[in-house]
Amino acid sequence: MTVIPATDSATHAAIEIPGLGKITVPIGLFINNEWVLPTKGQTFTVVDPSTALPIVDVAHAMAEDVDRAVHAARAAFETTWGNNVSGAHRGNLLNKLADLMDRDVATIAALESLDAGKGISVATSGDVPESANCLRYYAGMADKVHGQTIDQFGGKKLAYTLNQPIGVCGQIIPWNYPLMMWAWKVAPALAAGCTVVMKPSELTPLSALYMCDLIKEAGFPAGVVNTVPGLGSTAGEAISRHLDIDKVAFTGSVATGRRISVAAAESNLKKVTLELGGKSPALVFPSADLDQAANWLGLGIFYNSGQDCCASSRVYVHDSVYDKFVSLLKLKAETCKVGLPSDENTSFGPLISAGQRDKVLSYIDSAREEGATITAGGKRWAQAEGFFVEPTVLTDVNQNMKVVREEIFGPVVAVGKFSTEEEGVHLANDTPYGLAGAVFSSDASQVTRVAAKINAGTIWINNYCALSNGVPFGGFKQSGIGRELGTAGIEAYTQIKGVHHNLTEVMSWPF
């Protein structure tokens, strides 16, 4: 990857992208609708996961830079945003932003593909349009946030509630879906009237930075959205502990979610929404369409190269159809379209980093050492220099294995057996996680019954990975706190104020 020194400023750089040629991308901090340099002048390097080569150096925000962003966000919240503008106006701006994404879909998708290792066709047809649709969903809700009137006091008083924006919100997003996680957080926050200080992952900041220019072009007031790329230990820690941030929303690991909760509690007890890890189970019953189940569960574990918090990483199959299902899933693994992200045919690209690749391979090694069978995959994909791991199917597993207990965050599925419905539900729930799950069966009563018994925030019946902007998403147990998407997503950025209006009561004294 060739990096050309910027000609316009130190906050932008030109990079060469396959199919688009040289394009100029922002690499600075976006504060108060301006591109600025970090106070201490530090940077970090973004790497192409398909080649292991550097793409560009990006500004590294420190606590002082986060503070600048928070001041800008607070000023905007109190003057040009928040309760100072109508919900309809906020919705119009979100729609304009979505239109700009449609206009620039080729560029945004290319950045997402380059930065995160996604197949270009996947980014073009999936990540970018779905993110724009999320903006439009919340644009439609921006003028529909309202409270209640409570008239139950015999004429003595009138009470009503106001659903008001929380205020300045820090948002920390992961690297597996950089643009979609940006949209999931920014869209409801802006629709509700909040302002944002956004920290994209240091591994994949390019699409979030590109969106800042579109934010300004769409007409959002200065300070409404600010972006401070940096490490979790610097920018992320500063956001979590800042005394003038009213809420922090985070998607990522359970360990980091715990640290953010502690930091929020030890600072100003800011509100926290956490979407954390998962070890999602799927139950396949004898009456299921096994080929369709294998297709859906192959999608569930191999989409995005397995780097998905709700990936179908634990599959339990009724022992009467186990061997047949395993043979089908093995075929799906062996026919995945593995390749370079720039190839239009690629649907399975590299993992995000060398560290992630090595972590996944170490889990496969542990499975082998503990007695599991590597039925498909199990090693590096040798046809590229990047961070590729083959789609992997593990069989002969048990509940005590690391690959069954711990989140791998890679293209590795453990396939176990069950004999009865009760045993299957027990195995599904035998985990500290509770993000998602699935049931495959043609018995309508069974799927309804089992879906209710699996302890997870999302359950798919005879499908997998089919999310919708209108349906809330979040976890049970250690998979998180709160919900994103749907009406719950915008409610997470509001707080309720009860107002008591005296009509006839007179206060005597002494009381």
Automatic annotation (TrEMBL):
Keywords from the UniProt entry: NAD, Oxidoreductase
GO-annotated molecular function: aldehyde dehydrogenase [NAD(P)+] activity
The keyword Translocase belongs to this UniProt entry's keyword annotation: no
One Pfam family hit: Aldedh
Known pathway: Alcohol metabolism; ethanol degradation; acetate from ethanol: step 2/2
Gene3D superfamilies for the chain: Aldehyde Dehydrogenase, Chain A, domain 1, Aldehyde Dehydrogenase, Chain A, domain 2
Location of the Aldehyde dehydrogenase domain: 35-498
Cited PROSITE patterns: ALDEHYDE_DEHYDR_CYS (PS00070), ALDEHYDE_DEHYDR_GLU (PS00687)
Taxonomic superkingdom: Eukaryota
Active site per the UniProt annotation: 275
Family to which this protein belongs: Belongs to the aldehyde dehydrogenase family.
Protein name: Aldehyde dehydrogenase (NAD(P)(+)) ald5
UniProt source species: Apiotrichum porosum
Gene: ALD5_4
